[in-house]
Amino acid sequence: MKKISVCLFVLFVIFNVTPIYSQKVAFISSSMIRDKMPDVKLAEQRCQTMIDEWKRELKSMEDKEESLKFDMQKNRLIWSDAERTKKDKELADLQTERLKYAKEKFSPNGESDQMVINVMRPVEEKIFAAVQEVASKEKIDFVWDQSTQPLSYVNFKYDLTLKVLKLLGVDVSLEEKEQQQKITSDPRNDEDKRNQSQQPRRRSRTDSQNQQQSRDLQRQDTDRQINRNP
Predict the structure, then answer these.
(1) Residue 3 phi, psi dihedral angles, 5° rounding
(2) Quick one: pLDDT at residue 192?
């Protein structure tokens, strides 16, 4: 079944313009969100039920045509010209009606497409809102949809998919373990940990003040000893 992609999954969550190098980027898999979300399955079932009903009606029209064609082939020689003309018109009307019905229901932007859009829109809006909320909490500026624009490499510590699903009420305990394994096995994350551990500790203002006080006390002790021993 045709699925409607969420509009603008590449989000500006922070609306003020900031330099690109200072912006935080994450990604999601919208296809995984849809596959795991019960509301999507219910909406798809509703759409499929209606589409199946239209297909049954179309099949009934085709059966009427075939039955009439068979009847015409069997009786054409014994019918009068008026009867043959009447049946030809009847067949043409059935064909016109079937083609019109098929076009109305299944042509691009027809009733089928419009029905899918209308049924799926509330679900898509729900997903979109969840992505925005998670991105806002994580202070993310851009969210990339890996399902529509695949990337050659992604670091899964920037994957918001499971956080979005949790916000939508989906149990992702197993998927969280799998994601953590991907994060742990990524060499880039080991490199980041090493870099952080090698960074020199920044001296706080309190540390500087304490060291200065210590030097002052040592200087005062030295002065007292000199005064006692001229």
Answers:
(1) -110, 145
(2) 57
Predicted TM-score (pTM) above 0.85: no
Domain ranges of the chain: 20-59+107-193, 202-228
Give yes or no for a contact between 54 and 186, defined as CB atoms under 8 angstroms apart: no
User: pLDDT tens across 187-213, in order?
Assistant: 888 765 666 555 555 555 555 666 666
**Domain covering 20-59+107-193, topology:** Protein Binding, DinI Protein; Chain A (3.30.910)
Q: How far apart are CA 226 and CA 210, in angstroms?
A: 25
SS3 content of the chain, % helix, strand, coil (to 5): 70, 5, 25
Give the distance from CA 13 to its chain's centroid: 16
**What gap in Å lies between CA 71 and CA 64, rounded to an integer?**
11
Angstrom CA distances, 18 to 14, 22, 142, 143, stand at 9, 7, 12, 16
pLDDT digits (tens, 9 = 90+) for 9-58: 444 343 344 454 568 999 999 999 999 999 999 999 999 999 999 999 99
Angle between the N-to-C axes of helices 111-137 and 81-106, in degrees from 0 to 180, rounded to the nearest 10 = 10
Q: Output the six-digit token pair for 116.
A: 């899918």
Contacts of 44 (CB under 8 A, 6+ apart): 1, 3, 120
pLDDT digits (tens, 9 = 90+) for 210-224: 666 666 656 655 555
